[in-house]
């Protein structure tokens, strides 16, 4: 590994405004994350992984699984030669750690995201642009990708084995012994699973099925006569497979349709269809560099006819994109006719020349970002690239802040290298550094890649205070001839976090990567006791494996939860006893409902029903029995019911929430909502006892 020296460390920095809060909050078990997508809701986690400024990013919803960019650091192309004999390649970066300037400290790349279109709530669709390190074949919008660009890649490795990666905003790596239909994960996300579903008698007659930790599933297109796309990482042979279907535990399904590949053209996404009636269509344009998305539009099939052709001509809600001769996007016109502009000094020819002349030359360029109507960029990024990796070197914001970066480089083997942490300096010269942990696999052989920890191993703030973690659980396995037993790391989430004041949090996990215990130890010089929290899980059902069934806090108070084995929604939550000894309990009921879509002169019911929350019940002062009856009688019960849009042969439905009715103390207070054609709420009545049902 090539690292920065001590002198370097004194002249670099990290996102200073957040460094101290990171120090305080690490290990405090209060992570929250946003399920990115058209719903935009925030999920609070009982057991948050210890993530610094980290976005548990699995995409924009395409679902909230995998989103727009696979980050690996740039790699050599195939003509640059193979790595050491069939070495196991690096797994994709797994989580974000974002600096104050928006640069990912895991990969060295500026993380840009702009949501151009959003429609719907339940099963809604958003279209967001993001950037990353993918080579041009995997970047369908010039320097940008988008949140529906979801794919798996296959690479043959040693002994006839195969390496697979499932990629989106971040990725998960798998290894298949003998390129069989059995896969083992190479990433710390143990609950993620990859399966090969046979489609014929041949060994490779199959398609891939990925199951995420929350039970959502992605089906990938099977291999055909021509590849969906190349494997452009690691300079190896291989191919890529695009996602064809995404299924959420709730029953919402997204179907992805493509232009089929030919001998001279790869696959291009043309349409995404939600089972709740929303449709995204993409148009493409041919540029001297490649083929890129030129228009995106959305339709609501519950109220309008969706064109059979993949055209945005009749759409009222759409965006358009323009590109320069260098293959970079120059303008994005949003649905409100605001034009977001971009400029770049990047030149494919100059980059190719620098690559050919390496190590005598590297390549540098700048990217500028403009707000609509502005001629001065609000941000200019300076960038560096060589044949192995690329990163941001500095940033200038027009409102004042400037940041410069230097990076730690992990050298996996002769040609596979990537950024894994770094330092950043602000305008005042203050620095903070972020390091990741490099680990060898059990049975490691020469040329194999290291494993990189999912989150930082060390953070040093501008005051020199250190926060440290460890991700390695040592185990042994057979190695190369002459070295039959090689000890390596089974990568896990952090085993501990040690803070500058001497306090520490220790973690234990089950075989699925779920946190079982958190032991918070006091700072040095105090006599405070350790505080232990415990968690249990029920992994008999995949969709619920990551959800705690009990949480015992540091005072021994227990919270219980029961989940549906069908869709994973919480059915009952029981809190610790209050001062009177009563354990408050809330019960939840769900119902399957079907959307209705426009079909000819009428409407057609969807064949994919969706689970929706229809009621919540709790007792105000007393305990509930096993049947949910309040000990103090029916008058003690509070019931909230949820009313949804109903469809029929003459009326469409996207299952929008039309109202809530709260019944307590002998009266019902109803709140009603109305929406526009895009599923945006435009009115809400006050809960003043509205009777009947919402219109």
TrEMBL record:
Matching Gene3D superfamilies: RHS repeat-associated core
Name of the molecule in the record: YD repeat-containing protein
């Amino acid at each position: 590994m090539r690292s920065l020296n001590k002198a370097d460390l004194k002249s670099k920095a990290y996102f200073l405004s957040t460094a101290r809060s990171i120090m305080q909050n690490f290990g405090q078990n209060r992570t929250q994350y946003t399920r990115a997508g058209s719903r935009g809701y925030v999920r609070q986690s009982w057991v948050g992984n210890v993530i610094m400024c980290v976005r548990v990013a699995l995409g924009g919803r395409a679902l909230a699984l995998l989103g727009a960019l696979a980050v690996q650091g740039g790699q050599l192309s195939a003509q640059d030669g193979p790595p050491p004999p069939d070495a196991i390649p690096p797994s994709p970066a797994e989580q974000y750690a974002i600096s104050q300037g928006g640069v990912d400290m895991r990969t060295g790349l500026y993380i840009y995201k702009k949501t151009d279109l959003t429609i719907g709530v339940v099963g809604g669709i958003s279209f967001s642009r993001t950037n990353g390190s993918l080579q041009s074949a995997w970047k369908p919008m010039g320097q940008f990708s988008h949140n529906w660009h979801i794919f798996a890649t296959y690479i043959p490795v040693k002994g006839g084995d195969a390496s697979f990666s499932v990629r989106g905003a971040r990725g998960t790596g798998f290894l298949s012994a003998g390129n069989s239909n059995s896969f083992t994960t190479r990433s710390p996300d143990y609950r993620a699973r990859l399966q090969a579903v046979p489609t014929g008698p041949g060994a490779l007659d199959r398609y891939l099925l990925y199951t995420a930790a929350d039970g959502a599933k992605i089906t990938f297109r099977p291999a055909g006569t021509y590849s969906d796309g190349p494997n452009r990482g690691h300079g190896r042979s291989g191919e890529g497979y695009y996602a064809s279907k995404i299924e959420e535990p709730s029953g919402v399904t997204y179907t992805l349709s493509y232009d089929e590949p030919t001998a001279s053209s790869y696959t291009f996404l043309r349409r995404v269809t939600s089972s709740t009636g929303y449709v995204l269509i993409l148009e493409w344009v041919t540029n001297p560099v490649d083929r890129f998305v030129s228009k995106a539009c959305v339709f609501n099939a519950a109220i309008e006819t969706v064109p059979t052709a993949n055209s945005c001509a009749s759409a009222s809600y759409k965006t358009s994109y323009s590109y320069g001769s260098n293959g970079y996007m120059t303008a994005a016109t949003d649905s409100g006719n605001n034009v977001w502009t971009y400029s770049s000094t990047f030149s494919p020819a100059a980059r190719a020349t620098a690559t050919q002349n390496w190590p005598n030359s590297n390549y540098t360029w700048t990217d500028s970002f403009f707000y609509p109507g502005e001629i001065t960029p609000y941000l200019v990024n300076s960038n560096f690239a060589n044949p192995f990796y690329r990163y941001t070197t500095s940033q200038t914001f027009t409102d004042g802040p400037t940041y410069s970066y230097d990076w730690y480089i992990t050298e996996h083997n002769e040609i596979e290298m990537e950024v894994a942490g770094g330092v950043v300096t602000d305008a005042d010269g203050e620095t903070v550094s972020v390091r990741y942990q490099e680990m060898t696999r059990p049975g490691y052989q020469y040329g194999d890649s290291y494993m990189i920890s999912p989150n930082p191993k060390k953070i040093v703030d501008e005051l020199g205070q250190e926060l440290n973690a460890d991700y390695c659980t040592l185990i042994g396995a057979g190695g190369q001839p002459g070295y039959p037993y090689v000890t390596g790391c089974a990568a896990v989430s952090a085993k501990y976090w040690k803070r500058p004041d001497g306090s520490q949090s220790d973690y234990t996990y089950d075989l699925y990567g779920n946190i079982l215990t958190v032991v918070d130890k006091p700072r040095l010089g105090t006599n405070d006791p350790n505080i232990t929290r415990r968690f249990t899980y029920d992994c008999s059902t995949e969709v619920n494996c990551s959800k705690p069934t009990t949480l015992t806090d540091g005072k021994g108070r227990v919270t219980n939860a029961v989940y549906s084995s069908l869709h994973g929604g919480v059915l009952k939550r029981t809190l610790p006893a209050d001062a009177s000894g009563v354990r408050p309990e809330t019960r939840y009921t769900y119902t399957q409902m079907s959307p209705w879509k426009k079909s000819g002169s009428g409407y057609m019911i969807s064949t994919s029903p969706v689970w929706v929350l229809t009621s919540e019940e709790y007792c105000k002062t007393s305990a509930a029995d096993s049947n949910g009856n309040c000990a103090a009688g029916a008058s003690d019960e509070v019931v909230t019911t949820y009313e949804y849009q109903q469809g029929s042969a003459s009326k469409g439905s996207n299952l929008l929430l039309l109202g809530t009715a709260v019944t307590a103390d002998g009266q019902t207070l109803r709140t009603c909502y109305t929406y526009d054609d895009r599923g945006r709420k435009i009115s809400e009545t006050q809960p003043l006892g509205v009777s009947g049902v919402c219109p």
